[in-house]
């Protein structure tokens, strides 16, 4: 990905925007992904010890660096999936003591694109020690291509996704791009997982497991990397965006109960 210079509709960019206790978002510039301008968004959490945890870092400016310094020490840089790593290197250069954490597939993808990125740790299925008890964590399974780490900040009730839901506001897009977003079904009227990504999930049961775990976390806010995010109603948005995946699971559960009742009555 590379930067594309045009208004995103989420200005001001490159500045902390508080969305809850000890949590901010940073709207960044567009990046070009397969020729399409994608808006970008980072999430910053201040941990109980004062360290800052940065999810999907966006462009780092001197102004943003100063704002971060006023809030705490940048200690953790998170690349949550195989696409979101573009700005990691410049953050590592600016914050050499920060630990870089990578989801499965990130390092391999970067190497294929000629980037020699160094990560300190791999992200796993459970919260890492520095943020355990503060930020819930899991890797969404079911696709060999897309394995995304998702997070839930307990204090603010914020679920943090990257590409599992894309929710583009078409009014903020160039006119030529709007039909592509409508056809993909990822415009703001019904944002969801992009169809090519959904096709890669051959194990929909594992995806359903992950969505049900996110719902069990009972988040209120839902932050997305691309498009409009949700300030409330996160559980409802998860159920809407993944309704087809969940519908099959719930019908199977009903059928199982009916079968069990039938056997118990015989």
Descriptors for this entry?
single chain; 266 residues; alpha/beta; Metallo-beta-lactamase, Chain A; 8-stranded mixed sheet; 4-stranded mixed sheet; 12 strands; 24% strand
Protein architecture, described:
The chain has 266 residues and is α/β, with parallel strands linked by helices. The chain has a single domain (2-123, 137-265), classed as Metallo-beta-lactamase, Chain A (4-Layer Sandwich), CATH 3.60.15.10. 30% of the residues lie in helices and 24% in strands. The protein has 8 helices and 12 strands. The strands form 2 sheets. Strands 1, 2, 3, 4, 5, 6, 7 and 8 form an 8-stranded mixed beta sheet that branches. The chain has a 4-stranded mixed beta sheet with strand order 9-10-11-12, with helices on one face. A hairpin with a 4-residue loop joins β10 and β11.
- Might you state the CATH topology name? Metallo-beta-lactamase, Chain A
Mean pLDDT: 92
Structural class: alpha/beta
Helix count? 8
The CATH superfamily label reads Ribonuclease Z/Hydroxyacylglutathione hydrolase-like
> What is the helix fraction of residues, given as a range?
25-40%
User: How many structural domains can be distinguished in the coordinates?
Assistant: 1
What is the number of strand segments? 12
Determine and state the CATH class: Alpha Beta
CATH architecture: 4-Layer Sandwich
Q: Which regions contain 5 or more consecutive residues with pLDDT less than 50?
A: none
How does the major sheet shape up? 8 strands, mixed
Coarse morphology: globular
- The helix-strand sequence is EEEEEHEHEHEEEEHHHEHH
Query: What Rg, in angstroms, do the CA atoms define?
Result: 19 Å
